[in-house]
Hints:
Blueprint (H helix, E strand, L loop, with lengths): L3 E5 L4 E6 L11 H16 L6 E6 L10 H5 L6 H19 L5 E5 L3 E2 L1 H8 L2 E5 L6 E2 L13 H9 L1 H9 L3 E2 L1 H6 L4 E3 L2 H14 L25 H15 L4 H13 L4 H16 L2 H17 L15 E5 L3 H12 L3 E5 L3 H21 L4 H9 L1 E4 L8 E6 L5 H11 L3 E9 L6 H4 L9 E6 L8 E6 L5 H13 L3 E6 L6 H17 L4 H11 L5 H8 L1 H17 L10 H10 L12 E2 L7 E2 L2 H5 L9 H21 L6 H12 L8 H8 L1 H15 L22
Parallel strand pairs: 2-3, 3-4, 4-6, 5-7, 6-9, 10-11, 10-13, 11-12, 13-14, 14-15, 16-17
Antiparallel strand pairs: 1-2, 7-8, 15-16, 18-19
Helix pairs in contact: 1-3, 3-11, 5-6, 6-10, 9-10, 10-11, 12-26, 13-14, 14-15, 19-21, 19-25, 19-26, 20-25, 22-23, 25-27, 27-28
Amino acid sequence: MKTIRYEIDGDRIATLTFDAPDAAVNTMSQQWQEDLAQALDRLEADRDAIRGVLLRSAKDTFFAGADLKEMLEHGPVDAAKVFDDVQRMKAQMRRLEKLGRPVVACVNGTALGGGWEIALTAHHRIAIDNPKTQLGLPEVTLGLLPAAGGVTKTVRLLGLLEGLPYLLEGKIMKPADASRLGLVQLAADEAAMLAAAREWITAHPNAVQPWDEKGYKIPGGTPSSPKIAPALSVAPAMLRQKTRGLMPAPEAILACAVEGAQVDFDTALRLESRAFCSLLTHPVTTNLIHLFFDRNAIKSGMSRPRSIPKWKASKVGILGAGMMGAGIAYANANRGVECVLKDVSLEKAEQGKAYTKKLTDKRVAKGAMSPERQADILARILPTDKAEDLQGCDLIIEAVFEKRELKAQVTRESEPMLAAGGFFASNTSTLPISGLAKASARPQKFIGLHFFSPVDKMELVEIIVGKETEEETLAHAYDYVLQIGKTPIVVNDARGFYTSRTFGTFVMEGAAMLEEGIPASVIENAALAAGMPVGPLAVIDETSLSLSLHVMEQTMADLAAEGKTYVKQPGEALIERMVKEFKRAGRAAGGGFYDYPQGEKKRLWPGLKEVFEKPRVSYDFDKLRDRILYRQAVETLRCLAEGVLRSGHDANIGSIFGIGFPAWTGGAYRFIEAQGLQEFSKRAHALAEEFGPRFAPPSLPVGWQPGDKSASA
């Protein structure tokens, strides 16, 4: 056997050690499946000579699950074969469960997806109590369902109501969480784990799975029981409200869990296999698997200069203690990075630090953080109004208001405080980095770090490379973003970069629709139906209409200074009227497209109907959805063609985690790629003919690939 070592020790305990050669992790490869069958043949032959079985891993992790690259190779014609393969795999697992000897899984590290399903095949599981270890079934995030018994066993171990969150949300457990649920026994280290496993085998010589015991009942009851039925009756509607019918996996999991709970165990496994096959070749699943690979590409440093050694920041300075600066301070302190939070007064700086206390107070109250851990985090933030406290910072990030003069002033004041080899970053969301770098004495050490608000919740950071930014600065910025637990994308300098530029097209398309007289409620619902997290009018209220107007006016001024003419886009005049004529600048200013009555839900401002909506305007709802998606995708293609974006994976991750492009698409570039560039362009040109040139995609050379800079817009 190539991937499994088989040993029987003097204590008559057989050990199966998973150890795929030349691989960082163990996976359910074809070779492993063949080896498992051989190992089971030997176990059954040796049954009378052994007292029990240990499942172990020679890797740092226990087991990683199935090979996703292999899954992408399957098409609809492979459904029958895939079903047979999955059923064959489950039959091997059932052989282990019914061996007649106790089986213990020794979980020495992360076990997700198929890896956790292998652990569930054992009669007992012991895990090392390491908070970095992850356990669970996240298949739903890939558009799949757990196909090696995960749905069926989770329901039978935890019950429907308790188990569904771990299936429908792909909720990940730490060992302590799994212990509270009764799924694992905790051990301090590997030696203690192995000793406990042997003790358990001795104490349970006739172990069987709960579902194989006579008289077994699902915890909490079946779907028809009075305690379960009311919750299940509304579950499909609640799920549809959450997924909007765009994510097939959660609905398949719910159906599989409920139907499987009404039949015997082996029939439930067959239902699970059928549901898996229906999802495997679904376009949404393909998109989500590609998105998984895109995230891994970024985490592995695909967008980072490879020749530069890895780097860590020890001390970071943050200029501006408003909501953004305060959030960046929290992100640093929470990840163990010392930071100096500077503002014009000590009072304002202390208010910025108080934001971290507010966030951590909530976690302490819930028992998710100890008071000692909170104290450590707060101690890492030094509030100040003195520039000299920035002395020795490896990185200084300015997060002041979007005014060139102010940014230039704080750059000149604080840059001399950097440690040798340190670099300076601007948290601008729109202003070109190369222009801001003119205030720097060392523009090669100047870069953009565009955080998203609220920083404690938003994982994306857009790294903007200026014309003079050197490779080392980019590499260090990339390492820093990963260091504080965020996800970096890398873009070249341009007005609005990628995320702000593309986000602007989304909100302005909503404003353009309203300008055409389309009811605001229809616009918002069209965006939700397309999969956007919120409608364009709601989101521009949150970011503020006045900020959008400020960006427009700043752009006009900049272009005028360059001798260029600014051409207003559809929707921009409406934003200007909302702010200047109707004094509705957004939520923070008391109201914008929405009213925000105290203690009540927000509601659309009635003035929209009176001023903008046209009672007899005609519209096609499907076209509205297309306009929402295609407008952003066309802008993404332009950013790729112009070299603003450097890669397709940066486009996909940036669009989903930065501007809320629907996850079911796999990202804005994947949305194009899945259709094929020719089909996408055909639909985009049709929209351009009807709604204007903003939908026209750039002309691209034959054989163009993301990252090429040879296209002409």
